[in-house]
Design a protein that fits this description.
Blueprint: H1 3-21, E1 26-27, E2 31-32, E3 43-51, E4 53-61, H2 63-74, H3 83-102, E5 109-111, E6 115-118, E7 133-139, E8 142-152
Antiparallel strand pairs: 1-7, 2-7, 3-4, 3-5, 3-6, 4-8, 7-8
Helix pairs in contact: 1-3
Length: about 170
Amino acid sequence: MDARSIAHFVASTQQVFSTMLSLSVTAGKPYTVAAVPRFENEVSGIIGMSGDLQGMVVLSFPTATAKGAIQAFTGMEMDPASADFADAVGELVNMISGAAKAKFEGKNVSISCPSVVIGKGHRVQQPSDAVCITIPFTCPAGEFSVEVAIKPAKSAAAPATTNAVKAA
């Protein structure tokens, strides 16, 4: 995954938080995790990507940050146990992933419906054959991260060539 791809997710996160939550967001320095990432956060929205790019995107929050972000997004306080809370987290990761997807010019990329996991100590298993880049962010609601593990799709096998004999 190249730096330009990561920049798409940084810009998309900043755009979504600014436009939809009225929160300014500052990105920290992206980093990789050599082993399977262990999320310390309690709330994760997950989107799969397929097509020319394959993998997943995870928006991950501590509960307090998620509550503040969701309140800024919806205009009301929500209990993390409510279905609406999970739906709002799913919609945020959907908007971030969708905005980033639109920046991959010339690529055919689809995103899945979001899934949301809430609970202390959960782990999101990233694809083993894609490098996971974690982008830390801070905003007035608190700290959170966007984890991106995408890779180019394997090309279809090249068609077999035939040796045609030219008639004389």
